[in-house]
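Problem: given the chain below (373 residues), write out its structure.
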Amino acid sequence: MSEFWINSIIYTFYGVAVIQLIFMVIVFPRMLFFHKSKNDNSLPEEGVSIVIAAKDEYQNLKNFLPKILAQDYPEFEVIVVNNGADDDSEFLLKELSGKYPQLKSINVHSNANFFNGKKFPLSIGIKSAKYDLLILTDADCMPASNNWIRKIQSTYKPNTQIVLGYGAYQEKQGFLNKLIRFDTIRIAINYLALASWGMPYMGVGRNLSYRKSLFYAEKGFMSHYKIASGDDDLFINHAAKAKNTQITLDAEAKTISIPKENFREWYKQKRRHLTTGRRYKIGHLIVLGLWEISSLLYIILVVLMLFLPIKFILVLYFMGFRTIILLVLIKKFMILQNERKLLLLSPLLEVIIILLSPIITMSNLLLKQRKWK
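Solution.
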């Protein structure tokens, strides 16, 4: 290899290293180390409407809905939109309504949903909500505590219209579970950190709150109604601003979901989640692209430089320094969110996620996405 190409690879690596350090030393730590857990000037407690869109979720509703209905909060309602279910969800919801007066169920026939995905049933639930403050979650999610509603509501300030929360996955045995949970943490650090810098670009439907008045002001999901996914991240990307968005890192404010148990199902889920990214605002795409592309180039260039006739010691120094920062960031987030048993595998899990992301992105360009269930 000529000296020109060797120098090009070396200087590209230096550029990638600088970008990586900016994110890992400046961008991410602000949220993790300097975010205040207690919110000053929080609003008095107000009524809250929790909205859940469900489709053939009988077992999940049976297991998790009572945990939402038993929240320690003075005034709230739970709206479950049962969207074209073929199971016994309708009968279960009727039974639970007799025990919990705050539960309201709406049954939508499958032929009434003119659009793919959850946007139609979610819109029905939001329009039926009694209160202005909404919390959205999924049927396969449960709150981490009885104070879930209170912790999210207390994050609201006078100008707040959106609160972004963390949606965790259950800890189970196996490497795939660790990969899913690490990927979830990595994504959460990205969107929560950028929101703390005044650049909110997405939220997760497993744990998301905004005001009904904002939903109407932004005309709901109309700007992207033809896309099956995006009821969470595209809406937030369109509606969230630096001054109207807050984040919560309180462990009691998170939700916990059931993770996929085989790689194929998780891969399909990842494909679905990544379909909407290209529709983000251009500024968000640039920032996210810098992080993701530099992460991929970092791995590729390290491998290439192993075969170059150069002193590898500086590369090893940077690799060691970056690994230490990664472990510190992951450890801090795990402490904040009561996560366990991921730290030592984090460097390996990160490499796998970084290498899988472009593969999934390419598959989305080549393969057509299926409808929601």
